[in-house]
Amino acid sequence: MRRKFFEAEESVKRRQALHLIGQLYLIERDLTDATPAEKVAIRTKRAKPILAQFKQLLDAWRADPTVLPKSSIGRATTYARNQWDDLTTYVTIVASPIETNRTERAVRPNALHRKNSLFSASVDGAEAYATLSTVIQSACLHGLNPERYLADIIDDLHFRRRAPSELTPARYAARKEAENAVKQPW
Length: 186
Hints:
Number of helices: 9
Strand content: under 5%
Structural class: mainly alpha
Mean pLDDT: 88
Oligomer: single chain
Order of helices and strands: HHHHHHHHH
Shape: elongated
């Protein structure tokens, strides 16, 4: 939501929205060493009033005939109102961050792969691309270097050293971890 207002044209409304969002981020900065219970208490005490004020502004802007729905402030306002319930959950759910940057970065490779697969020459090519993309993302989820993982399993498959069921990212990662534990017993 912050990005929508940040990218909007310069105006008093934009500055008001960014100021309130900035106040929420300042609260979060103060919570780095807080316990989960303290985070909820402080967010409830300090962030809820700011969120209430922000909601009033959004509702006023929505009703304001000078804020055109297709303008950047109008689109930012509509987006914020549509996401309001999700935005406010961070107050009471400690594990919910105020921003989604980490999640967006994690999803970005999948979105890029999905977009790139649109240009496959055939259905078989698209399916092969999807399979490879899934294997690569699974390797990443298990903390593996995808290039090294693929090179190792292709080698194992070529020389028939292991069954394909032993080469899944999860089993491969477990085997490598066990091998490293044997090499370094301390």
